[in-house]
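Summary of Year 1 activities. Much of the first year was spent building the evaluation harness for sequence design. The harness presents a backbone, in tokenized form, and records the residue chosen at every position. We chose the following record to illustrate the format because it has been used consistently in internal testing since the harness was completed.
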């Protein structure tokens, strides 16, 4: 898993979810948010922004205050300057606050994200951005996509992917005994070695 060199005890959330709403909000992200929250893992998704408050400062505060950022790359992630600027902030916080960053590749080839190829690359190039900003986005996309994470295509269904992510967050970061039952269905009989072998396939 990716982390950077610094120390911090300012955490507000355990997990920050970065995602393209139109691709995953009502599917993977919804299931993952409920599954993590049901187990007491404090998880932030942008639905939690208070009404009447500035979105950017509140979002930045949430990113800075989360010890893990799970970045869900999907086919339209690169078409959103909002998502890309969010990723810039996440990578910056990795270097500043010793945060962990974990990519999830959902309905997109990890290589396309890493090298900005195919439709993923076309979406990025179509954005109205300066060459300098485009270069910054490409740099953080490459860096983030080179971190070990999960490729959704190797799982038979989203349910299994949610289980593996939840098991890793709980076992490596929450540091409590794994529960015997779950509303969403974390795998109580899973082995962390299995999750790590899956992660290593992306290295």
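For this record, the design step produced the sequence shown next.
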């Amino acid at each position: 898993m990716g982390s950077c060199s610094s120390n911090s005890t300012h955490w507000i959330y355990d997990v920050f979810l970065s995602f393209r709403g139109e691709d995953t909000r009502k599917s993977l992200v919804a299931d993952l948010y409920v599954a993590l929250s049901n187990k007491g893992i404090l998880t932030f998704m942008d639905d939690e922004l208070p009404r009447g408050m500035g979105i950017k400062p509140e979002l930045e505060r949430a990113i800075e205050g989360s010890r893990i950022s799970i970045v869900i790359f999907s086919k339209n992630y690169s078409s959103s300057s909002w998502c890309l600027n969010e990723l810039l902030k996440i990578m910056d916080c990795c270097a500043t606050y010793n945060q962990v960053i974990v990519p999830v590749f959902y309905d997109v080839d990890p290589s396309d994200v890493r090298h900005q190829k195919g439709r993923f690359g076309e979406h990025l190039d179509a954005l109205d951005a300066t060459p300098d900003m485009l270069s910054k986005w490409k740099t953080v996309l490459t860096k983030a996509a080179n971190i070990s994470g999960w490729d959704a295509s190797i799982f038979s269904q989203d349910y299994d992917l949610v289980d593996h992510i939840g098991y890793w967050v709980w076992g490596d970061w929450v540091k409590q005994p794994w529960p015997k039952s779950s509303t969403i269905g974390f795998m109580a009989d899973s082995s962390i070695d299995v999750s790590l072998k899956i992660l290593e396939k992306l290295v």
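The CA atoms of residues 168 and 192 lie 7 Å apart. Quantitative recovery figures across the full test set are reported in Table 2.
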